[in-house]
Predict the 3D structure of the following.
Amino acid sequence: MKEENKENEQQINVELSEEMAEGVYSNLAMIAHSNSEFILDFIRLMPGVPRAKVKARIIVTPEHAKRLVAALRDNIQKYEDQYGPIQSSQDNEPTFSFPISFGGPGGEA
């Protein structure tokens, strides 16, 4: 039975260019959704600068968004098991109000 599962598994080769491997720093994420997709905007907000730029926009299906949340939850748990609890600074951060709408209810993270 295990051999059957191995045959059914697909192996995916993922390419990562040097430019993409450098990554993009983001310290703010805005999330919005429609009936068919979730839009995740990753933003770099600099202290004292009134404008912030979206550095990356990722659009995913609702199913993939749910899998992403589960994967993040799993990785956060593994991180905290290894390094200790992550301290949340949400209580000390200012509240932001962005007049951006993607046609449906939205949220911030």
